[in-house]
Write a structure and sequence with these properties.
The chain has one helix and three strands, in the order E-E-H-E. With 56 residues, it is an alpha/beta fold. It has a three-stranded parallel beta sheet, with helices on one face.
Length: 56
């Protein structure tokens, strides 16, 4: 579904970052932005800003 979208957004609160899963959902380098809450740590925010926009 994301491959067919013109813009791609991921919605994830701060608790979803840094968690390892069994599979990869989608490469963050290919998304328009990540929408998250204000509790995301500054270190994690800086890490993901290298590849995509962070919206809080």
């Amino acid at each position: 579904m994301l491959d067919n979208a013109a813009e791609k957004y991921i919605l994830a609160d701060h608790s979803k970052f840094g968690v390892e899963a069994f599979c990869t959902f989608y490469d963050v380098k290919n998304v328009t932005a990540i929408i998250t809450d204000t509790k995301i740590s500054p270190q994690i925010e800086e890490y993901y800003k290298k590849w995509t926009k962070i919206i809080k």
